[in-house]
Specification:
This protein has 356 residues and is of the alpha/beta class. Helices cover 40% and strands 16% of the residues. The strands form three sheets. Strands 3-2-1-4-5-6-10 form a seven-stranded parallel beta sheet, with helices on both faces. Strands 7-9-11 form a three-stranded mixed beta sheet. The structure holds nicotinamide-adenine-dinucleotide (NAD) and thymidine-5'-diphosphate. The site of thymidine-5'-diphosphate has 12 residues, from helix 6 and strand 8.
Length: 356
């Protein structure tokens, strides 16, 4: 099984990316990680403050839409070995934001992915072994399942039917990655994961939003009838699956990643309320999200059969309880996110010094 010398990770200052940096540094100490992140509203270097001083990790502020930055990073052998793998997580990731303004979803998720693919293809010229490219996508590209057919799940062969601008932009990026493999023989793989939870998730997504609201004594806004179903996976299980796909996946393949952990939003909300000692009076039913997908459910059997991966950290409700405890113990982190103060961190830490 190949272990990579140097992963270029895009979007590593976000929720999953920052957990992935920590996961790789802990489990593959010989693998260097360069984190390329534009630090949008969702990028927060405080997510990685514990890795400062780690020689195997470096941060580069830059945009995946900037071909010059990509060229420089992919051709750079100093002071660490050249990049031999790209894990692409940078994206605009929130469905509600894509409904309000889809433009950044198109420029980052679609154009940015193609710019990155082009840069990797050019960097492959003259190499004996091409750079391996793992594209981190989402189950939302498959669209929505009905509630009345509980045995139906998304397989890798399920036709794509994205319903939100976010999902459509991710489906587009998946198609560009597929085309890069078929047309140019690039060594690409695609993962499609269900909803993640865990530490450092931006408190606009449902679990950290509800937990931090309750800590502050505020109600939780439940969309529509609350019966929409999501399959919840702990972020460290996702990180482990992405690493397995990078190291053991078959070139050109798609791998679904899921937790076998379907919950309706109402059920999720009741569990959070119970774990935090609140009652139903803290639920505020609000207008539904336009086009709200009813149910996501993942069949991750291929990943289990072919690569031997299974979720081990997502047990319910214990993993949810541990996540709630993390937000309770890390009030400084999310309060600085909510107030916007986290944006000062980059300028304080990196002002006047080169980051690559
Ligand atoms: P996030 O919004 O927390 O983080 C995204 C990161 O990308 C941020 O650090 C942001 O600064 C960076 N970024 C955005 N635009 C960029 C650009 N143009 N150039 C460079 N960096 C840029 O997202 P997340 O929840 O960590 O999701 C990471 C990836 O996983 C995304 O591709 C998402 O589609 C996918 N995914 C997420 C989930 C989930 O439940 N969160 C589930 C399945 C798949
Ligand atoms: P979210 O965390 O935004 O993830 P996604 O839309 O990618 O699945 O939402 C998860 C579910 O929670 C989704 O069905 C919408 C619902 N939801 C609410 O009911 N209230 C909220 O305030 C939010 C943000 C989401």
């Amino acid at each position: 099984m190949p272990q990579y010398n140097h992963i270029l990770l895009t979007g590593g200052a976000g929720f999953i990316g920052s957990n992935f940096v920590r996961f790789v540094r802990a489990h593959r100490p010989d693998t260097h990680v360069t984190n390329l992140d534009a630090l949008t509203y969702a990028g927060n270097l405080e997510n990685l403050s514990d890795l400062e001083g780690d020689d195997g990790y470096r941060f580069v502020k830059g945009d995946i839409r900037d071909a010059d930055v990509l060229r420089e990073l992919l051709s750079d052998d100093n002071p660490i070995p050249g990049v031999d793998a790209v894990v692409h997580m940078a994206a605009e990731s929130h469905v509600d934001r894509s409904i309000l303004d889809s433009q950044p979803f198109i420029t980052t998720n679609v154009q940015g992915t193609q710019t990155l693919l082009d840069a990797v293809r050019h960097a492959n010229d003259g190499r004996d072994t091409p750079i391996r490219f793992v594209h981190v996508s989402t189950d939302e590209v498959y669209g929505s399942l009905p509630l009345d057919e509980p045995n139906e799940k998304f397989a890798e062969s399920t036709p794509l039917a994205p319903n939100s601008p976010y999902a459509a932009s991710k489906a587009s990026s998946d198609m560009l990655v597929r085309a890069a493999h078929h047309t140019f023989g690039m060594d690409t793989l695609i993962t499609r994961c269900s909803n993640n939870f865990g530490p450092y998730q931006f408190p606009e997504k449902v679990i950290p939003l509800f937990v931090t609201n309750l800590i502050e004594g505020k109600k939780v806004p439940l969309y529509g009838d609350g019966l929409n179903v999501r399959d919840w996976l702990h972020v460290d299980d996702h990180c482990e699956a992405v690493l397995a796909v990078l190291e053991k996946g078959r070139s050109g393949e798609v791998y679904n990643i899921g937790g076998n952990n379907e919950r309706s939003n109402l059920d999720l909300t009741h569990t959070i309320l119970q774990l935090m000692g609140h009652g139903d009076e803290m639920i505020e039913y609000v207008t539904d999200r336009p086009g709200h997908d009813r149910r996501y459910a993942i069949d991750a059997g291929k990943l289990e059969r072919d690569l031997g991966w299974q979720p081990t950290r997502s047990a319910w409700p214990d993993a949810l309880a541990a996540t709630i405890d993390w937000y309770k113990s890390n009030g400084d982190w999310w309060q600085r996110v909510r107030s916007g103060a986290y944006r000062d961190y980059y300028s304080k830490q990196y002002a006047g010094r080169s980051v690559h």
